[in-house]
Amino acid sequence: MSIGTTDNDLNRLAPTQRPNERVVMRQRWRHLLFLHWPLSEELLRPYIPPPLSLDTYQGCAYIGLIAFTMQGVRPSWALAIPGLSSFHETNVRTYVHLQGQDPGVWFFSLDASNPLAVLIARALWKLPYFWAVMKVQCTPSGEIEYVSRRIGRSHAFSKLRAHPLDTPSPAQPGTLEHFLLERYVLYTVQNRKVYRGRIHHTPYPMQTAKLVESQESLIASAGLSRPLEEPLVHYAAKVDVEIFPLQHIEVIPPRANFTRPPV
């Protein structure tokens, strides 16, 4: 955390407001599964570039594994293209803020099942995307299964099955669920320049979920050791998302070191 800033001081509602900027992309996110584990700040801090700081809830940092389907991915001025605008994604992330403001997401990796989308996201959004073979399907018993295997040397994979449990409802501000799910800012780095991106959607229709199966090596591929305890599990059926332009906001100091995400 920044000196003089505690996790309770951050304005977590401001990022949920729709930015007064032009929309550059539209997407529909479906069948979102959120897995989160508490993780030591000491383990995460080397991966976070200055001037960003780890964002914590009641003094605890978290690592997240999020799997979902993207539909209707398109520039705001274009129509969706069948076979190109829909694909699956699984990402590994933690949470950061910028000098006590704009709490958001720091990605370790993002796997997607569309190789063209991977190339575009790397080039335009400066994010560590990887091409993976993936599928998401609903089973007759009401479970949702997510399978992913990265193309390349690491062959990082995940196989997850979960069963949504309760009635959907938005997470309440101030709760751990709101801290973990309601994130509308992302940060990324390229050539020692820090960039910030914003999104907007209605609050997630959150449900708790039972994790039926969990196998994965994505967190280890990012250089982290996953905690042994069971994760917190949440599910959201769908949100429609607006994407706003990426902005250059800071430069990493010359002598500052951090472990770069894989690119």
UniProtKB/TrEMBL annotation:
It holds the Pfam family DUF2071. It comes from the Bacteria. InterPro entries: ADC_dom_sf, DUF2071. This is Uncharacterized conserved protein. It comes from Chthonomonas calidirosea (strain DSM 23976 / ICMP 18418 / T49).
